Amino acid sequence: MDYSVKTDSVNRFTGSDDYVVSDELMYATNIAIALQKPLLLKGEPGTGKTMLAHAIAKSTGKKLYVWSVKSTTKASEGLYIYDTVQRLYDSQFGEGDVGDIRKYIKLGRLGETFLSDEQVILLIDEIDKADLEFPNDLLWELDQMEYYIPETKETVKAKHRPIVVITSNAEKELPDAFLRRCIFHYIEFPSPEIMTDIVAVHFPDLEEKLLRSAMERFYWIRSLKDIQKKPSTSELLDWLQALVISGISVEKLKTEIPYMGVLLKKNQDIAELFRAKEIESRRFDVRR
Ligand SMILES: Nc1ncnc2c1ncn2[C@@H]1O[C@H](COP(=O)(O)OP(=O)(O)OP(=O)(O)O)[C@@H](O)[C@H]1O
Ligand SMILES: [Mg+2]
Fold it and tell me: pTM for the full model?
């Protein structure tokens, strides 16, 4: 089904040469841009949530501002911080005009995008890392695209509403009032076909047989039901690189899984892999 958005090409995301995008993700992105609402992306780690914002920037030629959320991040910091320490310091050591409060207002990532003369892209990365108040506190600013600075009694209004991309790792539920304002898209873990395209972007010259064997192994590991932390796209890419630089042959991949630690990061998962491999090789021996 074709759900393409009929907008001008400047504001349309058409993908980029280093990012593989499904039609559904492309439609969701373009409808979010057209409706001027934040695009909220969820999905397993490594499914390209952060990369999408970079790809939109590349495709539209707009500047990208990245606001990486930490557990201690407060929404107000994204707008501005009032540097009272510097002001106190200046007042004690006689530096500059301390009466000019505006000098001590330091803009945050969101605040900066409001002042830009052109429309920009704002990535609010990993919103679920902050506490639940964080998205609630952003509601007004994201809706109205303005904020008030009590210290200077000024209201700052965005010159252009930025294209907002928000990522979340699906661990925490976000408040309903926040969800209501977003366009939501869940990035599914790539199918082997899409993964082959993603790998091709990163390793265009990879030997086909090696890729096929490595992919088979990778999806087999992901299918083991007792694996707690399934390897992601970025781990597959790292693993392929490890196989290439160490010259591992396709033959070896049939019986061994070299550099397991690139794919699996938990003792229990590595033990589970050994167990599964043992069962697999016994079955293989019986068949022979
Ligand atoms: N669709 C894609 N096209 C090209 N490369 C991709 C794609 N999806 C993932 N990758 C690659 O996988 C890696 C992880 O992508 P990214 O950091 O965007 O994932 P993420 O979903 O933000 O993960 P996390 O939740 O851990 O932050 C990147 O190096 C990126 O190059
Ligand atoms: Mg990310």
Answer: 0.90
